[in-house]
Amino acid sequence: MRTAKKSRNLAVVIAANLAALLVVGAAVAEEQTPDARPTAQLALLLDTSNSMDGLIDQAKTQLWNIVGEFTKTKLGDQLPRLQVALYEYGNDGLPATEGYLRQVVPLTEDLDKISEALFALKTDGGEEYCGRVILTATKQLDWSREKRDLRCMFIAGNEPFSQGNVDYQTACKAAADRGITVSTIFCGNRDEGVQTKWQHGSQLADGSYLCINQDHQVAAIRAPQDQELAKLSKELNSTYLAYGDAENRKAFADRQKAQDLNAARSAVSAAAARAGFKASGLYKNSGWDLVDAAADGTIKLEELPATHLPEVMQPMKPSERAAFLAKTAARRQAIQAKIQEISATRDKYVAKERARLAAEAPAEAAAAAEPFSDAIRGAIQSQSGGK
C-alpha cells in the first residue's frame, strides 16, 4: 500500500475493453424472445486501501459511462441483459479472517444499488490480496453457465498481484475454467504492472492488461444540453411507480433520487451519462417499479393487494389501474426517446469540443492519451484473438 496520485481515466479504459468484449462476444443468430436475451455479467473488484482514493472517486463518477457501453453494443444480434457486482478488497476495516475483502453487492440488474454502494465506500489501509478476491468472486457469484453469455471481471489496484495466501494463478485459472475473463487494471507504470504480475494474471484468464495514466485529467466539458437532460431525468422519475409496503415504496423512490443527486454532484458528465442510461432498455427496476415488473412478468397487477400498489393507484378500480399503468409506460417511453435524442446531440457536441481542445494543445493531448490508446488497442487485440 503506497500513496498514489488520483487516476482519472478508469471509465474510458473499462468502457473500451467492454466494447471489445461485446463486439467479439458469442453470437446468437436466431431471433429470441425478450426473456431469452443473452446476459452480460460484470464484476468490479476495487482496491479500497488508502492509496486508492482516486480510483474510488473515478468509479463513483464514471459508473454510468462504464455501464453505458452496454447500451451501444450487442451480444450477437441483441441488446443483452446487464448484471453488475461489486467487491472491495485491501481495506483494514474488513476482517483479516476474510482476507480484507467483501462482496458489496452480488450480481444485480439494479444499478442504482451499485451506485449507492460505490458512494458509500471508504478507503483504509490494508493488505491487497488479488488472488483471494478473484477466487472468492468466482465461487461466490451466480455466474451464468450459458456459452453465449458474457462473464467478465475487472480488478483494479496498485500493489503486487501475487500478494496473499491464494495463488493468483490458481484463482485466474479457476475463473477461466468457468468462462470468466479477468482483466487487470494496474494503477501505475505499465512496466511495474508487468513486473508485479498484473499482466500475467490477465493472460491466465483471457482478459486484458490495462494501465491507468494517473496524471491524465479528462476535461469536464459542459454542454448546452445538460440542463434539459437534468430536467428530463427528473421527469422520467415521475413514471416510476413503486410497489410493495409503504416503507419500501418510499425507500426505493428516495434511492433513485439520491443517485441522481450523487451523479450531479460528482460531475456534469456523470449526470448526463446517468440520464442516458436511464433512457435505455438496460435500466431495469423490476424489483420495485410496477411498470418494469408488469412488463417483464415479475408481478401480475391483478394479484397485488391494494395496500402494495402505488398510493395514486390504490383508490382505482382494476380496469382503471391497468389503463393508468399503460399510460404511464407510454409516457416513460416518450421521455426516454427524447433523452436518447438529446444525449446523441450532446455526445456530438462533446466529441467536437474534445477534438478542439486536443488541437489547441496537441503535444500535451498526445502524451496524456498514450496509456489510454495503448489500453484500447491491447484490449481489442487480446479479446478478439481469444474468441
Shape: globular
- Class by alpha and beta content: alpha/beta
How many domain modules?
A: 2
CATH topology value of the largest domain: Rossmann fold
Give a quick account of the main beta sheet: strands, pairing sense, barrel closure: 6 strands, mixed
Total of DSSP H or I helical runs spanning 4+ residues: 13
How many extended strands? Answer: 6
User: Which CATH C-level class of the largest domain is it?
Assistant: Alpha Beta
> Distance N terminus to C terminus?
36 Å
CATH superfamily of the largest domain: von Willebrand factor, type A domain
Order of helices and strands: HEHEEHHEHEHHEHHHHHH
Q: Whole-number radius of gyration? A: 21 Å
Q: Any idea what the CATH architecture of the largest domain is?
A: 3-Layer(aba) Sandwich
- Helicity range: 40-55%
- Please tell me the overall pLDDT: 85
* Percentage of residues in DSSP E strands: 5-15%
Q: Kindly report the spatial arrangement of strands forming the biggest sheet.
A: 3-2-1-4-5-6
Question: How would you describe the overall organization of this protein?
Answer:
The chain is of the alpha/beta class. The chain has 2 domains: 10-219 and 362-385, von Willebrand factor, type A domain (Rossmann fold, 3-Layer(aba) Sandwich); 226-354, no CATH class. Helix content is 50%, strand content 11%. The protein contains 13 helices and 6 strands. It has helices at residues 10-23, 53-68, 111-120, 130-140, 168-177, 190-195, 198-204, 226-237, 246-266, 268-278, 290-296, 318-360, 362-385; strands spanning 39-47, 81-89, 101-108, 150-157, 181-186, 209-211. Strands 3-2-1-4-5-6 form a 6-stranded mixed sheet, with helices on both faces. Strand 1, helix 2 (53-68) and strand 2 (81-89) form a beta-alpha-beta unit. Helix 2 packs parallel to helix 10, helix 3 (111-120) crosses helix 9 (246-266) and helix 10 packs across helix 12. It is globular.
